[in-house]
Amino acid sequence: MKDSISLLHQFDRRLIDSLYVEAMVLADEARSFFDHRAEEHRAVLSQVDRVEFACESLKVTTRLMHIIAWLLTQRAIIHGELPESSRTDAHHRLGEAASTPAGMTARFSEEMASLIGASEDLYQRVARLERQFVGRADGALPMPTGPARDLLTRLERAF
User: Fold this and answer.
1) What Gene3D superfamilies would the database entry show (predicted)?
2) pLDDT at residue 101 above 70?
């Protein structure tokens, strides 16, 4: 069982690392868009849509910052810089981020719509992962089961 827990921690570490890279790449794409191309996209919008564009820009940025902060916390836990109990502390949890209303992205350029969609998708995946981590930490979720886990358990018992 100890080996299967070790494997789960290795999987968690790799998952956190890959999500961190994905979040940083998306943050760089968003920064590049907002710094260099957003103005030309905003220029063709109505005054009301410009305000909506600004709000959605802030939502994208907020989602990404919450994600990155949470992932950095998870990396600190994995590397022993924070205790495992930090996963259930309210101030270490993934921050709330407003979602974009359905149909809102149709008002914006394809590039802006893509950034909104990608940030929402990443936020939802990270939120799902957080629920799993917290459930495991609270003991509410059992260790994952499946054919590979069953095989590992049988091998551990045999040796």
Assistant:
1) Protein of unknown function DUF1465
2) yes
Residue whose C-alpha is closest to residue 27's, from 78, 69, 55, 87: 69
- Can you say whether the dihedral through the CA atoms of 84, 89, 95, 96 is positive or negative? positive
Question: Could you tell me which CATH number the domain at 2-158 has?
Answer: 1.10.8.930
State the Cα–Cα distance between residues 115 and 76, nearest whole angstrom.
28
Determine the Cα–Cα distance for residues 34 and 112; give it in Å rounded to an integer.
Answer: 9
DSSP states of 44-98: TS-HHHHHHHHHHHHHHHHHHHHHHHHHHHHHHHHTTSS-GGGGG-GGGSPPP-P
Does residue 54 have a pLDDT over 80? yes
- CA proximity to 7, closest of 141, 144, 112: 144
Phi/psi of residue 144, each to 5°? -55, 140
141 pLDDT higher than 60 = no
Q: What is the DSSP letter of 159?
A: -
Nearest to 23 by CA among 99, 127, 93: 127
Q: Containing H/E element for 106? A: none
Q: Residue 102's closest CA among 120, 83, 125, 75?
A: 120
Q: In whole angstroms, what is the distance from residue 22 CA to residue 75 CA?
A: 14
Q: Is the pLDDT of residue 18 over 70?
A: yes
DSSP category for residue 109? -
